[in-house]
TrEMBL record:
Single GO molecular function: peroxidase activity
Organism: Streptomyces graminofaciens
Pfam families: An_peroxidase
Descriptive protein name: Animal heme peroxidase
CDD domains recorded: PIOX_like
Cofactor(s), names only, from the UniProt record: Ca(2+)
Amino acid sequence: MAEAGQHDERFERYDGGSPEAERLVFERLARVLMEVQVRNRRAGGGGIVRAFHAKAPVAVENARLRFHDDLPAALRVGFAQPGADYPAVVRLSNASGIRQGDGSPDLRGVAVRVQVSEGVSHDLLATSFPVSHARDAREFVAFAKAMAGARSPVQKAFALFVKLPLSVGLRTADRMRRNVQAATRHTVDSLANETYWSRGAMLWGEAGPVRYLLRPAPGTPSAPAPDRRDPDFLHREFARRLGQADVAFDLCVQRYVDERRTPVEDASVEWKDAVAPAVPIARLTIPAQELDSAEARATARRIEDLTFNPWYTTDEFRPLGNINRARKAGYQASGAHRLGRRFVSEEPLRNRVLGRPVGAAFELLNRVVPWHRLPLSLSLLNLVFLRKVLRRLNLIDSELREAPPKAQPAPEPIPERLRTERSYDGTYNDLSEPRMGSVGATFGRNLKPDYRPDLFDTPNPVTVSRELLYRESFVPATSLNVLAAAWIQFQVHDWVNHRRYKPGERSVEVPLPPGHAGGWQNTPGGPAEHVMRFAENEAVEQPGQPPLLFANSASHWWDGSEVYGADEQTARFLREPNGGAKLRLEEGHLPLTGNGVPLTGFNESWWMGLSSLHTLFAREHNAVCDALRAEYPTMSEEKIYHTARLVVSALIAKIHTVEWTPAILATEAIDVALHTNWEGPPKNWLNQLGLWLFEAHSLTGIPKTLPDHHAAPYSLTEDFTTVYRLHPLIPDDYELRDHRFGHRLETVGFMDIQGGAAESQIRKTGLANALYSFGIAHPGAITLHNFPRALQRFERDGEIIDLSVVDLVRTRRRGVPRYNDFLAGLHKPRIRSFEDLTRNAETLARLKDVYRDVDEIDTVVGLFAENPPEGFGFSDTAFRIFILMASRRLQSDRFLTVDYRPEVYTPLGIDWVEKSGMNSVLLRHCPDLAPLLPRDASAFAPWRTVRPTANGDGSGSQ
């Protein structure tokens, strides 16, 4: 016998041949069950109910389960001990997923939760027929899908005789139909007189597999003939019965004999009593009580909020067999859906039918004409279909998942405050999977990783950096200002942070290429060496697997953690003393640490541009706090803080969506698409019609939709991290100017305004002057030969690093595919020659000199080398990751979808987000900047300059 909780191949066989393959099947089936719930809601009215056993005529929480004193020795396992007596919750139900009258032909069910001790309970689920109509989970869900929404006899007949055979085949449908008809032909007069079978098997410790049943205790009186016209006669009969005496059932078990007569995997085979006798082991007693009192009704409502699952147990009693293994994922999904913790958005039939041929047509068209060269309406529709493909094929879950399923305690109630507040660490954003996207959750993938240790140093990354990345002369991005460069770093610090080993613990060594004169100094004051050395990333250990899984030290959600911190201790430390709602500021600036770097949520890689934005949004948080306190005088400081965090985080997400992104991807199509993401499509009949026909979910802005993770649980990805390596945006030199008179205050290099020097400089310059100086200056273009020199010899955490080399090495070692494979993985044609990538003669010569063939080109190099579409600040290939992940960051987040509403944010909070943008944030805290901001563009476009004049009054602004 296998140890409790371990797989025993004598009893179980996995669908697909492995636990992981079966898990993926079950996840798909779980989604189908949620769709079944939606269709049943349409048929039955009201809200989402249980996928099965929707109506409960009886629900009590004061039952008792007592094991017999003469419990057979072989069955004395865990909580099953002679004389042991436990409280139990009991729910007796009709089996249909639609609430209907008790007289409708149906099976009946029972769910029992036996509470052994705090944190230890066992859920027992059984139905009033000895066997399942389905052999396995696929058949079970196919039947549920066919019957979904069927209420009338005609609808049920159509489902049984047409839809079911089309799904499972004629023979299987015939067997299932006969099974169900036999089960529902039985008339039920009282739930107290029914026998309930588990149908699936469970482990009973060392005794091995068993099935269990609950049958009426001897002496249970029969029921008089009921009035079947009464839709609630089963409840009334049970209430009368309980008003007079206890109701009791005997818990019996049937022990496994052999796979032919008592199969574990095939739930459609009855374990006959003659082969496996039912042995009584305990009695379940529901004490006499009043079922129609106010207290009893309140109890029933509490029980309706429970989710029962046979996997809420211990390892000794884990469920066995395919259907039971599927129940964990299926019941958790449907339970979470019912309770408003998980969501499903059905794709309209017209979208499904029309989408395939139109999607195929765009795929063919794009081989000739890329999307950005099409007319506006066609390019927008093309992007819709491209995103559909990417959502289907390029969301890969890398998190270590449970396979096969494991027993677990019944879940604790969700902390009430986290229904309306962002947690400090990103937990409970998805209430059905609290750890999703939280601090410590692993990065996913958009492309299958390609781990090639033999190519880690090929070609030498130092050579790649010097020949292809080094900034020989500054190439400006003239459509943007430096605030755009600071902004994306501000955002990336909220999204992604790979944990590194401490210097000296575990390092990456990159050999210097021959001829690299003078060596490399790896630490301040250290010796010159023939290698570059920097701290390795901490990978999540996977026995027998390469180090390709990494945890995020930030949360994956758009939650402002760069301002607020990623844990409770940091967040509380950043607030004003004594639990105040505001963030700590000193004369309007961030408070400083001992080394001069400020106290804020994330302060690594600090420079004056980051300081400007962190200061600005700390002030914005405090302004929201003041407004909330004035509008809602009775609101607590704790509530004010968390509401202000919601508001500021949403405002940051909005600014990035509708201002920063259209600024860096400056085309009409992107501007329309991004505004559509937030506020819905323009009131243009052609666009509206196109979306109605092909992508109805986009007819409103994402904040008005339900959360949807699409093909994988939400996470940011390693590929996303790669395309946001936008360091060329950073200039090496800065001119600080006075925003009133236009005169130059100081010219500084990047090293003069980074680290601890940034705060002294911004205090000397002033926030308004700093913002103005960055607003009128251009960032670098995202291209080859434009990597900041300052970042190619940069001190961080006691190390001296070349960040361009680090970018190349990290991307290789994390298994992000090289550029040509990256193209193919994103459904673009591979390049066949270096000339396909660039026509620049000098760059072409260098590429050929550095790389042996096009398949070796580094991803970052290829992305920088591409000629982007007109108006784009980065490549079309990087843009593909963007269009997939940009909407995903909104669509998966309940605080930016279903909980983006006045009841959570307050009416003032919603109004604040909707009416604000980057300009209003700037003017709220630096009103003097009003005449300098762009009139018809975002705050990330170049600002109007103030020309110094002889009298110094700045009258020459233009």
